[in-house]
Amino acid sequence: MSASDAERVARATLSLILEPGDWRSLRLMEDAGAELLVEGIADQERYPQFEAARARLAGADGAAELERAAERGIRFVVPGDDEWPSQLDDLADAEPVQLRGGVPIGLWVAGPLRLDELSASVAVVGSRDSTAYGEQIAVDITSGIGRAGWTTISGAAIGIDYAAHRGAASVGAPTVAVLACGVDRDYPVRHAEMLRQLRADHAVVSEVPMGGAPQRIRFLARNRLIAALSRGTIVVEAAARSGALNTMNWAQRLQRVTMGVPGPVTSVASLGVHHQLRSGGAALVTCAADVLELVGEMGSNLTEFPRGPDQERDLLELRDRQILDAVPVYRAVAAESIARLACVALADVLAALPTLEESGHVERDAGGWRLAESARR
Question: What's the predicted TM-score (pTM) here?
Fold first, then answer.
């Protein structure tokens, strides 16, 4: 199954003339269809609000753009294609943020990874001004979930995003970068080598057509795609004002699992994450096992509650532990003194002390009872 050629060309044309995630335009397309919307934009009387798009329409050739993309190994995936990630359809029912939202017109994709194979995926996002602590946690989590067969989705930005992609790629796990610019652009420039690797072995995705520049409002539109493509979103370090929190907000709107990694309580870089954890907006995770327990199938990947190793004293009956707590460390005392301090009947103390002596917990001398040397250690 695949969308018709006419539908694909119309959507490619709309991608060239409309801003990514323009909620009002996407709602119109949902009602009228892509082909009719292109025709309507050309009619000033029908859609006077599309003046800017109409100015671009004269120079927009969807069919030529698709051919140019194919020559560069870039495909345009639209609803109706086998490769279309159906989880994006959830965006149709989510309220917009700053007039950005809705199911995308289509996705420009570079790389061999198919988008319909992203059902087991987790988004990992965070601060651009990341710390070494945050970057290491991001690498540990993404490499851990990668080994378990999960895909990492992030935005290829400086800081936590880069660490997330690096962690997944380091164990040969799939990872997807969702950009706010054309998939053919290396942005940020310092990540050019990583983006080339993702295009070669994984996938780079964007609503923005080839050559499109990254703009602030496009990052807000991009964030909804990161959240929607994933089964859950993890934020590793985010200040009070952070784009990563916008991605978490979209995940919450889409009823996805939202998770946060705590940082030092004095860290400004984790202030936004801590607020989400404190308010109940995100579940606290510290490692890949925590993440897999939350995003996996119910009852799978359950983690054991962490506890220290059992000690010999832990294996004693409660009454024996109560008596042992009343035995002095060095100065031996009579059984009567131990009974009074432990609030235990003397008969019970006299019965328990020989047993505790056999097990090496107490020792007896002329002055009475005290802890054995091994128990003191």
Answer: 0.86
